[in-house]
Each structure stands twice: as structure tokens, then as C-alpha cells.
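[Solved] Which block belongs to which protein?

Original post:
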Amino acid sequence: MNYPKIGIRPIIDGRLGGVRESLEATTMQLARNVAKFFTASLKYPDGSAVACLIADTCIGGIKEATDCAAKFEANNVGVSLSVTPCWAYGSETMDMNPFIPKAIWGFNGTERPGAVYLAATLAAHNQMGLPAFGIYGRDVQDLHDATIPEDVKEKLLSFARAGLAVAIMRGKSYLAIGSVSMGIAGSIVVPDLFREYLGMRNEYVDSAEIIRRIEKKIYDEAEYEKAIFWTKNNCSEGEDFNKNPSSREQKDKDWEYVVKMTLIIRDLMIGNDQLKEKGYGEEAMGHNAIVSGFQGQRQWTDFLPNGDFSEAILNSSFDWNGIRAPFVVATENDSLNGVSMLLGYLLTNTAQIFADVRTYWSPEAVERVTGWKPETGFIHLINSGSATLDGTGQQSIDGKPAMKPFWDITPLESTECLDATTWYPANNGYFRGGGYSSQFVSRGGMPVTMCRLNLVKGLGPVLQIAEGHTIDLPKEVHDVLNERTDKTWPTTWFVPRLTGTGAFRDVYSVMNSWGANHGSISYGHIGDRLITLASMLRIPVNMHNVEEEKLFRPSAWGMFASDHDACKTYGPLYK
């Protein structure tokens, strides 16, 4: 894939006759150092190193600025960073592209006033309505010091990760397979949101397209044979808890059907050259979808096998083809939770858990039904078997349960994720057409971040964020609580980090303040990354528990009374 590059603009004092000449080598080396740092520290979703492009010359005036802009446009640059160790002419050298996230690193030195350029040019950006991030090291460095301080590294990475997410989304599609599921507002796909805020297109296919492709064998039949063999050998089938269990023959047919569905949903998203060889050139192209959603309930699941297997396997970092990048597929076509998953995925390169934010359990309620009283309340995250299998927590970092980018996952870890998952015949009360639902319990001790994008009339999109941890419950307690809901679905027990105020004064308040029935759960405490990304997209954050000192937004945000005011003033990025 032709991923967007990070463009680096070395800014210099343009006065020839001694000043510029004395700074040429230092300024260009600063740009090279940052490019080397980015390439060593960041990866694209496919695992390849992030590419950087440096301007051909240092930029000391308008001619060199426009030459750089032309080079960036011709070479798929999606993120712009200006670096300078010195004073330069701000409005003549600044990046004027309104759609590319931009930042300036003004070197903290005393020989030349890089900080003065930073302040002057951020003022120009703010005056012209072109938000930019300011990066300024805490400690003074010597002019020729090639070291990038740790605090500067942190801000460079925060900016670059979010900027690349913005650039990677641009021009991609959200593919809706089916329509609105059970009146869920998030599955009412709103094209203006995708176009104006994310720079994305919307694609739509009726669920009947899956039936057509199955009946006409519009899938790679050789891959299907490989997939069904792998499924039978790696996906453990659980007990059938239905009052009227299906026959073995019907269950086997359901396995075959859901595996074919998985192949087809993937092909609908990204295409498959093998289909062209079968005479289906149009189908081979796919829909350029970076995220999709499958309606499922109820028109589909009332008579056909559910989408739980397809969604769970696609959202995972492995399948019959081995360890690979996860896809992003939203249950019930909840496009808003699909976007939430996408934001987390692009910031971490890790699979995302899709879940209902289903039940708050107070210590008193737990004690009443189990006899055991926890120290704090917790939230039961559970949905119909569509969560990524990475969410089992069977992967590890430094001996602790984790979810990792696919290139760090070992074959043993992928096997352990599969072994920790049981596939139960679908609950026929929900899914009359049968199918299979995954069941696992996430291991406790994982730092995670739950987020959700909501749409509010008169306000637009709003992001909610809750950092916290997964927890383990005593088995006998888990069993009692799990029996009270659907025990054939995957469970994550979640405790948000509390601040003592607002929506985070206690766990109940987090649950009570959540804006929808679904949430996306990402490994790691990435709330600050989400906030940085949201500011680039001009999406306000109305609920978070991120420490104030970790917030990183464009310089102009400091001039407004609130995040909401800044986002409202600037409007969507692609308006």
C-alpha cells in the first residue's frame, strides 16, 4: 500500500551573506535526525517503517516554501513537521496546506532563537486559522547538539501518530453491509460525518450480496478449503445450550457458511485478485474499505447463521493464513463504534475489542448475588461473540497479559488465544438462524482505554474516553455473574481509573455517563493520543480521565475557553 509520508521542512534564516550559510548544515541535520527517529520508532499498519520526505533545501522564504509544498503534494506527504534551530520569517516559510496536520519544533537553544520562530509562526497559524502544534523542549541545548530530548520525542511521536491516522483515513471507505440493526442509532450511517470530519467515503452493499457470492461461489474456493480445515482444527466447539439443539449435520453446515461469510466480508472490504481469475473482475476490486460494519440482526440472523465468527476472526490478528494485520469490522453496523475502533487501531496498530457497555456491578450488588464483596465496582463489557480474539489477553509484554501489533505476536501466542476461546452454537433466542458465538474471558491486569464517538444534534461528533484496567474475578464469582447474562459471549471485566470528580468520581458515574450501548476497547492507556487525534479532526472530547500534563493539542486551543469552543470555531477538517 502507498501509505502517506511524513514531510519534514527544515526552516532557516534566509539572510545570505553569513547568517544562512552558518546555519545550513545544522538545520538540515536537525531534519535528518528527526526523519531517522520517526523511521526507527513508527510503523504503518502493515508493519513497514514509516517513510519521511525532507525538503530539497532549507526553507528560508516563500520560493522554497512553495517548492517544498509541490514536492510534498507530488509524493503523498500527509503530515507536515517544520524544524528549526533559529529565527526565520514565519509567514513566508510556514506550511499553508489546510488539510495536512502540521507541527513546528522550535529548538531550545541560546545561540539562535528557535523558540522565537516557533512562537511567531504559531501566532501566524492561529491568526490565519491554520491550527498547528508547537513543540519546544524543556531544557536548553547547544546549537550543534544532535540529541532529541525525551520530552521532545514524546511530543513528536504524539503528533506523528495522530497525523498519520488522519492521513491514512483520508480517501478510504466505510463499508456498510446491510442497513440499520435493531434501531441502533450508530448504525444509521451519516455520510456527512465521514466526509467532513474524516475525509472518508461511504460504500453500501445489501446483505444479500453475501448470499449471492455464496450461492455463485464468488470466493477463492482453494482458500475456503484451507480455511475450513483450519477452523475445524483450531476453533473448539462448545456445548449447545439451546432447548432444541441443531443436528450435527446443520452445525457442520453452519461452520461452512460462516467461514465463507468471513472470506466474502474481507473481499468486499479490500478486494481479492483471485476473483478476477474466476471471471469476477468487478468483485475483485473491493470497496477500498478501511473499516466496515455488518448489520446482522435481525433480518439476516432470523434465518441465516450470525456474523459473530466472521467479525471475531476478521477483527483478530490471525486466521488460516497465519498472523496478519487485523481488520476493523463493527458489529450491528454500528458505524460510530466502527470509527472508534478505527481511531484506536490507527494509533496503536493493535486489534480492538468491540463490546456492549452492558452492566455496572457495585460491590454491594456483587456481594448480594455471590457472597463476595470486591473493593470497587466494575463494568461488564460483553457482546455477541464478535470481539477480537486478541482480547483474551493471551499475548504478553514483559510477562504481563497484553494485545500487540501483529508483527510482535508469536505463533504460540496466536494458538493460545485460540485455545482460550470456545465457539458455542448461537443462542437461538437471539439468532434464530444459528451460527457460532465466541466465548472467552479477558485476562486481568491489562491497561486499556475505552472510547466511543457519539453524534449529538446541534453539536456534532463528540468523543468519550475512559482509561482503566481489565481485572480478574474469582472463578466462582465470574460464573455466577456470567450466568445472569449470555454465557456464550466473550467477557471483559473493566475498572476505569477514577479522578474523584465529574464522570470519573466513581465507576457508576462512568457507566451512567457513557453515551451509547457500545464501546471500543484498545490495549494501553492511549487517551492522550486519542485527544491529540480528535483535535486534528476538530472533534471535541467531553469525557476523559487523562492527566492534564499529557494533553497535546494545537497551539490555538489555548486561546479558547474550552475544547468545544475551538472545535466549533474551526469546524470539521474537510468542511
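(Second protein starts here: sequence line, then its C-alpha cells.)
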Amino acid sequence: MKNVFIFRDKMNTSGYTYAFLVMLLLFGPAGTLLSQQTTAPFNEQAAKAAIREKGLQGEAAREYLEYCREQYKLSKTKLLPRKLPATFSLKTFPSLTGSANCNNIGFEDTTFANWTGATGTNINPSPTAWVPGLISILNARENDVNSRHTLMTIPPFNNDPALGPIIGYDTIAINTVTGKADIPYLCPGGGRVSVRLGNSIGNAQTEKLDYAITVSPASTLLTYSYAVVLNNATNSHTSVQQPFFKVNLLDSAGRLLNSSPCNNYFVSADSAAADPSLQFLPYNNPDPAHDGFYKKWTSVSVDLSPYMGRTVTIEYVAAACIFTLHFGYAYIDASCGALRSVSSMCSGDSTALLIAPPGYATYQWLDPSNTPIPAPLGTHDSLYVHSGHPGQVYTVNLVSFSGCPTTLKDTIQITHINALPGSMPSCFGGHDGTASVIPSGGAHGYSYQWTPGGDTTQSISHLAPGTYTVHVVGQQCGTGAFDTVVAVKALPPAAPIFQSNPICAGDTFQFHALGTGLYPVHAWYMPPNLAPAQGVGPNTPNYISWKGIGGTYVDSMRDGNGCIKVFEDSLYINTLSATIKQTPEHCWMDSVATIQLTAGGGINPVYTYTWSGPGNFTSSGDSLTNLLPGTYVYTIKNPGHNCVLKDSVRIVSPPKPADSLLITTSFCDGDTSAVLHFTSGLSPYTWFNGAIKVPGIPASSDTLFIAPPSQYTSYTLSYFSGGCKRRDSAAVRTFQPVRFLPVNTSNVFSPNTDGANDLFFPFPQEALSEEEIAYNTQSYYLRVYDRWGVEVFSTHSYLDGWDGKYQGKTASPGTYYWITTYLPRCVSNVAPIVQKGFVELVR
């Protein structure tokens, strides 16, 4: 077993274990922040030219265009990147849209604080009888029946199944065109936590979450985000029986604020399938009778200013169908803030930047004379005003995705360069801290100068603990500048994971992480693919108990500041081994075989053995002798542990030679002689009549003359083959009954020259040898007729079968009739025996 504490700054990437690479990507350093901004409007033509150059089409082209727009917005608004690293605490970087009235509305505390939840059963159209409470396991899989309100913290890592396990994405919403997962667990542009409401189990499950907001000037803008996965029942359910998802805004009495679509959203599986806007896409479903649809992350902004001073509750509800098979679930996130437009203009500059709240479907800016500013400059969420003046009032008309209008006014004001500092602590003894700033107050971008180090980017990384100063200058802002100090903290040392005792497969083990006071929150990941440990909550104090599965275990520890450290430990599963030495049987049934078993491995060198074998054989030793042929099953155990090895050893005996005695001279009752023959070249021979040796027979004689045969009942011959003494025998009876009699034992044959069932005989070929048939038969006559009575085959030889031909030509498939006339040899005064039957000829 190994214990490893990983310093990310001291290891080359090529040296990372797979476990650590995954954890690094899940919880590693922050991505690069934008350091340059632009005053130019979004150049859609240039973006489309890039799309053509890349050869993108359809959905891929639309997504790339949207990506370009988002990058343009980021370059102006100076926000953090869309993919926040999990190691950033939202306490370190203040929420961009949050307020004191909306604490944990985006689950940023990785809890359900200020939320209320419930579960129920979908009995549409009747109301759901809600059972208060949350059923939650951190990062549970989509099909985990034990989690219905699931906190998700895994950032997007891999959405392409061709490159490995899907990590950080929903595993059901797979695009039918690209084959890739389309829904990240975390909302793009949102925080580091989201919630999956519901699961993929079905069973008529219904879940909901509620959050109450007391509307104030600081919380007039509510933005809720969602992604939906619905399993459609196709034609088997009515609309009210289908899975669904809905969002409602309620007053303090639990009633809808009004019937306007501005305050509610509803979609069922059948309406998703018929979505005219094509926002819902089909996902890969192996059962074509139950197709499914999903909608990627969508954000909706709602104006709460009409409800100032009142309590508004946002309610999310996800439901499976009213029966058992079809599921419905959604991912949700939210934020709130002040509904206002923000302006930036440096003293002495003539250009102002106006920024409206994001999340609306359309924007239309109006100049101070209330004249609409034409597209594309006046139809985005931001506006550059050249030759602007302080005090000028601009208006922006916003329309939400549900069609609800909102109007905001923004007065150009002189702003000052400012910067909000943020940092990520460094691991103890390491150099993996990060320092960054979020500038504001300028309209033309910023330049940066860090000391020590001299870096000129918005964020710097690979830092040791300490203080770092950054000088931020607003471009074209004259003397506009801002200095701030960013402190990078050092985490205290933490103890590694340890496992106290060696284990076997099936033993329950416990990984134990010390330093629980420093790291109160633990997330455990298990082999083989580092999946979140099922049934282990996010607040496991410091250990995980599990049935032994070998491989690498990872504990992602988070302290009270949101700083995460990753530890890994390899669990070795002790196994037993066995070395087998075997002496085989040399001769048939001579019982001289042996087995010697030597055990190894396990927890300790103390072993127990149990054996079972042919003939109720049992033993408890490691050495067996005088064994009969057969299979011997052994079980080795380590006393006191679950180390068990069960396998088998087979003793193979040379095959017993077939009875080769041939009766070549017939002897019905009254015959005076018979001759027994055996295979030559296997001397010395010894002939026995019963248990008595036949006298006067040379050891080289493979033939025995019997006269008269009626005096003897059985004979035995001993001989040598391959160095082994063998016995063979034949019975000689004084009266020979009728042993060969044609019967209708097979009524189908297929003469297709494949070597199987090509000839028809009115008796089973395998039952008697030709010699026995010849001995028993005095006369034999077979005739075969077609359905018109035409004779197609006849023979007097029992060796001749019908080959399915008539006059040398292939006979037609169909039913044919046969008659045999047979006279046995050894029965006196008996009339010829006539047998009849039919046979089906198939081709």
C-alpha cells in the first residue's frame, strides 16, 4: 500500500497518475482570465467567416457563433471565465449577481440552506401529495434511486465517450449527431454547484425545490437556469400522463403571481418532442418505442421590481410519468441581484460602456432622444457610446425569453478604476496558489503589472504563499489606475490517508484521513473509474468504509474556505495463489495418480484446504495420492479473512479400449462352433471363460475356437497396450433372440451429401454392428414408393440405404412409403415379418 501527498507544482504532467490527472482537471488551478478588452462591437461577419473556414455546419456552426458572442461579452464585462474551477470559493470571489437577500440561491455553499424540498408521486391531473424533506447524495449518478435532490460539483471534463468515461456531463443527454454529451452538470457561466432535480428511475416520482426571496432593490433581478431531460412515452400516454418539468413564481400564499408566461415555465415530454423552436434535441435511446429529448442549459431573467417588499418564491418541479417506466429530471441553478444597467466612463475619456443585465432574449438601446439605436450596435446587452457625456440618459428595452418586457435607464457617470482581488490558497509547502483581480470602471480594457514577478496578465498562478501587488491601469483613462494587494494563503499540512490492516476481496476496509478539523468536508472517489462513492455523503467526517475493491481511491478534501486538496491511496487486494504438481494416471483405472498443492499469497502463510472429488472423495490436506480419474475441487482459505481461492484439478485416465471381440461364426441354438477374434499385436493374451483361464491357448493367440458354444456363457481376454494390462470381454449366449428388426425409427432424411442423414434405412444404424445384423438376418427386402405408388427404390441388402434418387435422378421432396420383408435367422418356424412406414425427403 502506498500513501501519496501530491504537490501539483513539483510534478511533471507526464508523471501524474490517472487518478490525480482526473482530480487535477476536476479541482485544479483556475483557468486563464481575460486580460484584454475591446471597444469594437461584435463582428458577426468575421465570426461567420471563421465558421466557413473551419468547415462547420448546422448545430456546430450555431454553437460556435454563440461561443464567439459569449467570448465577446466576457471581453467587455470583465467577468470570470465560464468554467469556474471547483477550488475557488464563492466567498473569495463575490457573487456577480448575488445579494444578502439571495444567500445560497445558487447552492454556492454546497448545501440546501434556505431551500425547502419535497418528494411525491405523480398522479396527474390530481394534485401531488408532497412529503417534505430532501433525498440527496452528493454527485450521485443519474440512475441512483437513493438521490432525488442531487448537489452536483463535478466540472466538465470529458463529453466524448470515444475518449473515455463521460465526466462532468449528463450521461443520458447524448447528441444523436455528434455522439457527445451536451449537458454539463454545472451551468455554463454559473457557479461551481448545481442541483439535479429527479433521476432516471421513473416510478412516477416527483420532486420539487422552493426558494423564497424578499424583494428589495438589491434583488429585483432573478435569473434562473435549467437543463431538462425527458423520456417520452411516444403514443402510449396522454399529455397529462407524461413526464414534465415546470418553474413557477409564487406569492406568499403559494399562488401563481399571475398567469403570464413571464412567471412560469412548463414542458412535458410530448410537447418537447413537438417543440417547434427546436430547442429540444433527441438523445440516443436504445429503445425506439421510448424516445427521449433534452434541452441544454437555458437562462431566464425575471423582473421582480413590481413585487418590491413582497415575498416571491421560485418553485422547481420535475416529474416522471404517472406509471413506472418513463422518467423526467432537470438541472437547476439561480442567481439574483439588482435589475440595473451599469455604465463605465473614465474622467477625460469620451467613450462610455453601458452594460445591461444578461439573460434576456432581445435588447434594444435608445439614445438620449429615445431614438432606437440600429443593429447591430444597439441590439446587444452592452453598448459603446462614443462622444458621450456624463449625465446623458440612455434607455434599454429588454424582452425575456418568455416574452415579458422590461425597461431600464442608465445615466452616464464618471467612474474610477477599481479591482476586486481574489486568490486561491497554496498547498502546504507547494507553489500552486493563484491571484487575480476583476477590474471595473474603464471602457477600453486594462493593463496589469504584478510585483513581485513582473507578470502583466489579469491572473497569475503557481504562487507560493505571500502577498502580491497589482497595478491596474484603465486604457485611455489618463491617470486612472488602481493598486491592490492579493494575499495567497498557505494551507496547513494534512495527514495522508491510511489503511490499518491488509484485506482480502470481500473484506470491509476503512480508509481514514487525519486532520478532520482542517478539512471538514470530504468527497470520495472509487475505482475503477474514480466514480463518486455511492452512499457516501459530502460531509463524511474523515473516512470511507467499503467492501474491498482494488485500485486507487481519492479523497477530495475541502476546508472552510473552499480550498480543496486531493489525496490518493492505492488499495491492494490480497489474493491467494496455488502451485499444482500432478502425477497422472498411466493406465486405465490403475489408481496411481497424485496431486501436490502449494498455497501462497493472502494475508499470512496460514492456510486451510478442503477437497471434494469423485465417489464422495473428501480430504483436508495439501497432498493427495492413489487417486481415481475425475475432477477434484479444492478450496484454500486464510483463517479469519475472506481470502478464498477455489479451483479444480482434473485427473485424466487413458480411455478404455472398445470391446473388440468379433463373432465371426454364427451360432444360433444348435450351432456346433464359433470363433472369437481380438485385435492382433497386443500379446501376451490370456483367455478366460468367466473367471477360469481357458487351458491350452498360446499367449500369442488372438483367436479362440469354441466348440460347442452352448457350453459357455462369457469370455474375457487380458492383453497389454502401451505398457498397461487391459481386459476386454464378450458374452456368448446359448440362445440368440431376434435382435434385428426393421422399424420406423426415423421418418425424415436429407440427401444433400453433407455426410449427415444422407441415406434412409428402416432401422437405427447405430444400434447394431453389420456383423450382428448379418448374423441375425436370413433374408431382407426393402421397397420404397412415391405417393402415386411408383416403386422408386428396392434392395435385398441391409447395407444399402436409399439415397433419394429415382432412376439416377434426384427425387422430389415429399412423403414416401416403404415396406420391408424380413426373416430372422435364429427363430424356427416363423413367417416372414412385414413392416411398413413412411419417410419425409427434404432438400
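Accepted answer:
You had them paired correctly. Confirming on the second one: Helices lie at 18-27, 44-54, 58-77, 269-273, 770-776.
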